[in-house]
Amino acid sequence: MAAPQQPRADVFFRPPLPRRVSSHGFDPPLFHDDGRLWLLNMQSDHRPEGRRFDGIVLTELDRDTLRPVGDTHLLLQHERLVEGPKLLKRDGWYYLVLAEGGTGVEHGVRVARGRALTGPYELDSRPLLTSRDDPSLPLQKAGHAELVQTPDGDWFLSHLTARPLHTPYGPALPPRP
Length: 177
Prior knowledge:
- The chain is mainly beta.
- It is 0% helix and 41% strand.
- The chain is built from no helices and eleven strands.
- Strands 5, 6, 7, 8 and 9 form a five-stranded antiparallel sheet that branches. A four-stranded antiparallel sheet has the order 1-2-3-4, with no helix packed on it. The chain has a two-stranded antiparallel sheet with strand order 10-11.
- A hairpin with a 7-residue loop joins β7 (108-114) and β8.
- The protein is globular and about 65 Å long.
- The mean pLDDT is 86.
């Protein structure tokens, strides 16, 4: 029986090793703009008197080392919990798409826009999407969205949601032993 052939090293893609990147919170997407790389994140103050969700920040990263370049920019602060930021650029505007209210029944999607990447951003007064105001909807907890455009130019909003369960124990899973 012949020995199995070893894979050729020049044929397979070898992804780079993971690198640690400084961050302030969680759900940190990368944003590419005019050849520059940016880390978008939630600012979090974990001190006992600090605000756990203290705004959305943006930091430029060196493309090779992923080390921060320059200052971190505070893009937006809001009295409600906002996190899970996403950015897109269209027609000279930067759009900041945010998750609002956590992932429970208060979940929603908010949008802010600005002419400059580093702000200022104006927050729309109403949510782009939420189900929090109508508990009769079959899908609840709508939020954490991503806007995507198809090659044909159509736009879609992909988002998290939940379907309430109606069980003998109420709208939840049965208790665990």
